[in-house]
């Protein structure tokens, strides 16, 4: 109570907007994209098909999927002047601000197609983003390791093209490992949308001012960068390595978490909505063993993660607070096994989340009723008072 009004906890959790895109039941641990259960999409679909589903609302038939794939493959190149942006970034720059800068800059190269109420503009901007973000991400990686950039090879699929531009070399042919591509495709599906999370709400809020799609997505990338949101997958790896380097005593680490030692959280655990096991984490955990065995990942860290989960799920502190593994708990181990450095994990999250962000922006532009309005506040400051001259302060 502030003397003005009693803050009702429910006030903080009022619904932000309506949407038809993604359904979550946090207590039951249910996640559906346009009504399709995530477990079925993970098993039967592909990332490009899920991207179509989220953006256009229905699973594509073969003609629609072929056309969508072909349109994307024709826009994977960056403008040569945009490619030169990478010369200016410091080599040790974190790739997330590089990504958000390059995406924001797209609106300077495509000034003729930014109007959010012109369907042709929205369509071409959608395709350009889906096609160019993997190229931008691969170039950010190449810049960080001082290697030459590879132009896209449009005979490859979206994920294969990204892997080739990231890990390939101009001097020799690069064969994309199909297991690697399938694993990354699955992780992108699992990250593709998640209702009104921090970054998606940011995309909707920025777009609600009629800012163009590139500007809105750039804002979403910046929101995702936060360690409590998209940065958690990197933070989980750093946490596991710290536990290992401190002697691998999981019980001791859990004790420090429960004592709320400064900055000691069980990263990859807990969720604003899931008060049950995150269904995405369950799918990833199931495949982590196969993927790590196949790709030769660091099993010691996977074993540590499993011990940590076992320990936490048997401890009342976590059970009472309904803290379960979320999507980030196991993903970092897989990304590491794929060969990505830790600071690129959040970039991979952004690549996966892109179709969800685009779908929400388009939904809001097409239906103002789904807009996040201007948030109001409960004022808890001073009541009215008169100005005090300097002599009286
Ligand atoms: C993502 O919204 C989305 O959908 C996000 C996402 C998506 O797909 O977009 O799912 C992706 O962001 C997943 C979350 C990734 N972040 C992390 O793993 C970081 C660690 N998690 C926490 O920061 C936290 O769990 C949140 C922010 C994710 C959720 O916090 P809640 O549920 O709002 O809980 P809270 O902050 O109000 O805390 C409730 C209690 C507190 O203890 P008490 O004060 O009651 O004693 O739970 C404790 C917290 O201290 N707690 C944790 C904890 N998370 C909450 N204690 C230890 N470790 C944790 N991770």
- The strand order across the widest sheet is 1-2-3
Termini separation? 28 Å
Radius of gyration: 22 Å
The major β-sheet equals:
3 strands, antiparallel
Q: pLDDT average, as an integer? A: 92
Number of strands: 3
Question: Which tags fit this structure?
Answer:
citrate synthase activity, 3-stranded antiparallel beta sheet, Citrate_synthase, single chain, disordered N terminus, 393 residues, Citrate synthase, mainly alpha, acyltransferase, binds s-citryldethia Coenzyme A, Citrate_synth-like_lrg_a-sub, 19 helices
Can you offer a commentary on this structure?
By secondary structure, the protein is mostly helical. Helix content is 56%, strand content 3%. It contains 19 helices and 3 strands. The chain has helices spanning 9-12, 38-44, 47-56, 62-73, 80-83, 85-88, 95-109, 119-145, 158-167, 178-191, 198-207, 213-224, 232-245, 250-258, 279-295, 299-313, 316-320, 328-338, 345-366; strands spanning 22-25, 30-33, 36-37. A 3-stranded antiparallel beta sheet has the order 1-2-3. A hairpin with a 2-residue loop joins β2 and β3 (36-37). The chain is globular, with a radius of gyration of 22 Å. The two termini are 28 Å apart. 42% of the residues are buried. The model is unreliable at 1-7 (pLDDT under 50). It binds s-citryldethia Coenzyme A. Belongs to the citrate synthase family. This is Citrate synthase. It catalyses: oxaloacetate + acetyl-CoA + H2O = citrate + CoA + H(+).
């Amino acid at each position: 109570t502030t003397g003005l009004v009693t803050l009702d906890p429910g006030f903080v959790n009022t619904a932000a907007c309506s949407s038809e895109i993604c359904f979550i039941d946090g207590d039951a641990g249910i996640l559906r994209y346009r009504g399709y259960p995530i477990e079925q999409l993970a098993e039967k679909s592909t990332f490009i098909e899920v991207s179509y589903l989220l953006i256009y609302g229905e699973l594509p038939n073969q003609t629609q999927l072929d056309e969508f794939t072909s349109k994307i493959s024709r826009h994977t190149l960056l403008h040569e002047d945009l490619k030169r942006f990478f010369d200016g970034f410091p080599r040790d720059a974190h790739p997330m601000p590089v990504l958000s800068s390059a995406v924001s800059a797209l609106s300077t190269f495509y000034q003729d197609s930014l109007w959010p109420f012109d369907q042709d503009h929205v369509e071409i901007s959608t395709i350009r983003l889906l096609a160019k973000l993997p190229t931008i991400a691969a170039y950010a990686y190449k810049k960080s390791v001082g290697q030459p950039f590879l132009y896209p090879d449009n005979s490859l699929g979206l994920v294969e093209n990204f892997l080739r531009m990231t890990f390939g070399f101009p001097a020799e042919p690069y064969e994309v490992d199909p297991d690697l591509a399938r694993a990354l495709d699955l992780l992108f599906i699992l990250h593709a949308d998640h209702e009104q999370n921090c970054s998606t709400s940011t995309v909707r809020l920025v777009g609600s001012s009629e800012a163009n799609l590139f500007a809105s997505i750039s804002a979403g990338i910046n929101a995702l960068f936060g360690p409590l949101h998209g940065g958690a997958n990197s933070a989980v790896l750093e946490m596991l390595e710290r536990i290992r380097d401190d002697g691998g005593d999981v019980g001791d680490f859990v004790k420090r978490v429960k004592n709320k030692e400064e900055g000691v959280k069980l990263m990859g655990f807990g969720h604003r909505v899931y008060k049950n096991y995150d269904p995405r984490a369950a799918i990833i955990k199931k495949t982590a063993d196969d993927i790590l065995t196949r790709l030769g990942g660091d099993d010691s860290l996977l074993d540590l993660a499993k011990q940590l989960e076992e320990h936490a799920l048997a401890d009342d502190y976590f059970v009472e607070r309904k803290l379960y593994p979320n999507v980030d708990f196991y993903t970092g181990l897989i990304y590491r096994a794929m060969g990505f450095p830790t600071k690129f994990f959040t970039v991979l999250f952004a690549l996966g989340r892109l179709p969800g962000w685009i779908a929400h922006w388009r939904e809001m532009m097409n239906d103002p009723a789904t807009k996040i309005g201007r948030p109001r506040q409960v004022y808890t400051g001073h009541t009215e008072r008169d100005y005090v001259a300097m002599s009286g302060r």
